[in-house]
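Subject: sequence -> structure tokens, single chain

Hey, anyone have a minute? Need the predicted structure for the following. Not urgent.
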Amino acid sequence: MKAGLGVNGEYIFEQEKHLTVLKTSLFFANDGFIVYDCKGQVVFRVDSYGPAPRDRGQLVLMDAHGRCLLTVRKKRPSLHQRWEGFVGDRSEGQKPIFSVKRSSIIGRCGMIVEVLNNPGEEYQIEGNFGQRKCRIMNAGKESMAEIRRKVDASTNVVLGKDVFSLSLKPGFDGAFAMGLVLVIDQISGDDYVKNCKAEVFPTTEY
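Reply:
Had a minute. Here:
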């Protein structure tokens, strides 16, 4: 299985990894996240303004200690609502390492992820983020990461949409995956999901 783009080797795991993502309102609506591992330790958090003023079109993914790992920024103008990802805290003139855009195929609900330093590497994001049911797939249609509703282990109750699971396949960079979650959330917040079909893959239990 192809591992994919590596933003930070610290978050590339040898075994399948299950993270819990908490969507918060600490900054602006849609922009705050804290990500925990299975032991309840903070793995990632999101800063929407950071050391310098940020606009609504830029988000920063940090580690638990506040170190900037990845910046995602909306490209303007953009026909297909394109976002770009930069290693660390983006600086003027820095080149992005990946881009995300809506699929231009009529009737298709999804997004295309291009790895810019490797033109042959591409990912597809399909599903309904509003329902917390998405897949990130490589060019071979292998699922590399999945977003799904969180179920409380003690009560077997499905939690609210502000808490969801992010499952990573072995070798797929968690920082890259979480950067894509930020972009999906922003596009969904711009009324993307309501124009898509409720499901784009068969309903199954993951």
